[in-house]
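User: I'm curious whether this sequence folds into something compact or stays loose and floppy. Could you predict its structure so I can see for myself?
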Amino acid sequence: MEPVGGRAKRALDLAVAIPVTLALSPLLAGIALWVRRDSPGPAFFRQERIGFAGRPFRVLKFRTMVVGAEGMGAGLAVTDGDSRITRAGAVLRRLSLDELPQLWNILTGDMSLVGPRPTVASQVERYDDRQRRRLLARPGLTGLAQVSGRNAIPWSQRIEIDIDYIERWSMRRDLLVLARTALVVLGREGTYKGPRGGFDLPPGPGAADG
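Assistant: Here's the prediction. I'll summarize afterward.
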């Protein structure tokens, strides 16, 4: 079984990601150096996420929080003014530059330019059968949910938006999401979860899948 969009979508990913990665390589190197100098720890944050068909992969981001942040405070949830965020990290998050290393995940085929954002196994285990349809696409650097509220809307709503994207996928829709992403980033909307955001799925049938 191929992910949503098949070869046409993969061709678009490579046609965009290869030249963009080459063009941005000096910027990526500069950011990596800045992150290292700003706070103790590595430049990159790596974490296992779940991709197409439930396959795990290592997502790559610039580190924006102190080392070990997942075991502190709100855990996976990040709020505006979170004390775990570094000075460089606050700027990178505000401008969404922390996501740029995921261009490498696109080049390797683990991710796509557009698709549902990848999440961790403990959250996927709580999906019901319908919500698991979210795994029929490669995870995206951006997605329909990201241009429809981003982290400010609850996960149950984000999943429904992602399923709608998958069921009505078209190349034209991908291009529209990419265009809308630029507007969202420039408007700095939905960077943090806010009062309605966050993971809100109860333990369900998927919890026993391991």
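Summary: The first strand starts at residue 44 and ends at 50. Confidence is low (pLDDT under 50) at residues 204-210.
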